[in-house]
Design a protein that fits this description.
Family: Belongs to the UPF0410 family.
Helix content: over 70%
Protein name: Transglycosylase
Number of helices: 3
Largest sheet: none
Distance between the termini: 40 Å
InterPro entries: Transgly_assoc
Oligomer: single chain
Number of domains: 1
Subcellular location: Cell membrane
Membrane topology: Multi-pass membrane protein
Order of helices and strands: HHH
Length: about 80
């Protein structure tokens, strides 16, 4: 059940990151996948920066930050 919640929160965070990063999104489905990957990436990156959030909202915020960073990096690589 936790995995399902993780995937849903990651997908929602990816969708929102695609809305926020206008012009750098790749469509709803890919943005959702980026959100799930962003949840992993944010979960790795934020504690290294000394930032951590708890609970489902914390997971959402972490996934959102990770998805925004990943969309920005993918956008830079795509332009190059």
């Amino acid at each position: 059940m936790n995995t399902l919640v993780f995937l849903i929160i990651g997908a929602l965070a990816g969708w929102l990151a695609g809305v926020v990063m206008k012009g750098r999104g790749f469509g709803v489905v890919i943005n959702m996948v980026v959100g799930v990957l962003g949840a992993f990436f944010g979960g790795w990156l934020l504690p290294k920066l000394g930032v951590s959030f708890g609970g489902d909202f914390g997971l959402f915020f972490t996934a959102f930050i990770g998805a925004v960073v990943l969309l920005a990096l993918i956008g830079l690589v795509k332009k190059a």
